[in-house]
Structures are given as structure tokens and as C-alpha cells.
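Let's inspect a concrete specimen:
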Amino acid sequence: MTNRERDEVSGTETTGHEWDGLKELDTPLPRWWLFIFYATIVAAIIYWVLMPAWPIGNGYTKGILGWSDRANVAADVQGLRSARAPMFERLATATSTDIAGDPELQQFARAAGASVFGDYCATCHGAGGAGAPGFPVLADDVWIWGGAMSDIERTLQVGIRSDHPDTRMSLMPAFGSGILSAQQIGDVTEYVISISAANNRLEANTIAAGRGAAVYQEQCGVCHGATGAGDRTLGAPSLVDDVWLYGGSRAEIRRQIELGRGGVMPAWGERFDAGTLRALAYYVHDLGGGEADAPPPAPAAAPVEPSQTTPAPLR
């Protein structure tokens, strides 16, 4: 081996590389660094043997320990479901009154419902039920099919215009497809604005609204009512407020009359168990404007014997 040049200042051998008069020193690595480096190699080999590591075709080496993050997560999820099962069972048979009177069940229903809503509903209805064009706001007190918890749960169960045999079904005709003329659609638009709270900002054309009144009664009143109050049994929204599913501008109101737009909500009854469905219904009911369920009918009075109401004859 040839002797290499040594640096006069440090006494370290050079590598023989030189750039612009600068010579590279062959400084050895510290021993502590080398020991750590060798330890990482040993640790890697041990890891390859114990844990899943190397891809092989369509699979991978399982390792001696048989570790699986997928199996561990599945076990954790199953454990969580088992821990929550008693509360979901209680929730499945609880009424809105029962939940309201049980702080523990109420807290559980709200938390479970919020989790399900975030996973499955917020994509369309927005975080916190804020809504979006074509997707109703769930945080107000305006309901198309009813705002009682039983109504909300029923809507969740069967969906709206879904493939469920008992789905909520409403269908507004596209009046622009030859049912009404362009002028008639414009007149009905002005009439709808005139009977709604939107008139305060849009100021309906009273002459056109007068012409549209007769068209409205003939074509729209059967569903939305003579006064535009709506009909929840038909899923026909109220037209007297200033809440609009697709937008409350004059152009959007007219566009809705022309196209008869209507969205689809999946039926969640076959995807969720009874407890989860009720938790979701409670959360939506609790968001803002949920209504009270109708009280159950009073039990029929027991029959009274005639002798209890008819005086005994005098003898």
C-alpha cells in the first residue's frame, strides 16, 4: 500500500482528492457512531425475522410474532362495539322523553349521533347540519317531513326517493317541460314571492303575481296548499317563509318551478342498527329546531257495569 500524504496541520492522511488546491482529509468515523450504525443493522435483521417485512408476490412475510395492525384495529373496534352495546340497546328502546330524562343516555346519544353524522351525513348536509344548495339545513326549525324525533327517525330509516319500498316520496313536476308557458312560470314565480317572506327583499311584481295566483291554485295548491303553507304528509315545503332548498333568488325560484328538482337521500335503516339510528335521529333533533313528539293516545276507559251508573230500583 502506498504511503498517502499527511496534512501538516492535523496530521491526518489525505484521500488524494484535491479541488482548487484544497485536499480532502481521510478522517475516520467516531467509534460511537460506527457502533450505533452496526446496531441498527442488527436491529433491522431482528425486525425482519419477528415482524411482517418483505413483500412476496401477492403477500408478504408474516414474521415469527404474527403481528397484524389490521387485525389489531379490528379487535379494538370490536372491543369498543362490545363496550358500547349495552348503551345502544338501551337507546334502541328509549323514547325521546326517556332520553331527555336520562342525562347519561342523553350524553351517549348525542356523542354517538354526532360521530355517525360526521361520517355519513356531513358530506351533504354540512358540518353541524348547516346545509347546502339541494341539501336541507338541519339546524333550523323548518322541516319538510316533520321535525319530531319519530318523524326524523322515519325519514332516516326509509330515505327520500330512495330504493326503499316505503321511502318518503314527493315529486314536483318540471313545469317548464310543456306544462306551463314561460309567461305562466314567470307569473307563478312572482306569486310565490308575493306570498312568502322573501317579498320583503325581492318585491314581487304585483301585476304578474295577480295573474299567477290562478295558475298557482290550479297547478300548485293541491300540494303546497291554498295559502302556500305546505303539507308535510306529501313532503311539500312551505312557501310562505324565506327558506329555500335551492336558493332564494328570483332566478333560483323560477328555475325550481321550471325544472322541478329533487334530491335523493339513502335509506339508512338497513345500514344502521336500531340504537345507532335513534342516536342519529336524536342528534339531528337536537341540532336546533326539533319538535316534540305527539303524546300517545289515552288508553280507552274500562267498561262500566250498568249497576254502577243506573240507580237500583226502589222496592
Q: What stands out?
A: Strands lie at 14-19, 22-25, 55-56, 59-60. The chain has 13 helices and four strands. Confidence is low (pLDDT under 50) at residues 309-315. Residues 82 and 224 are 47 Å apart (CA to CA).
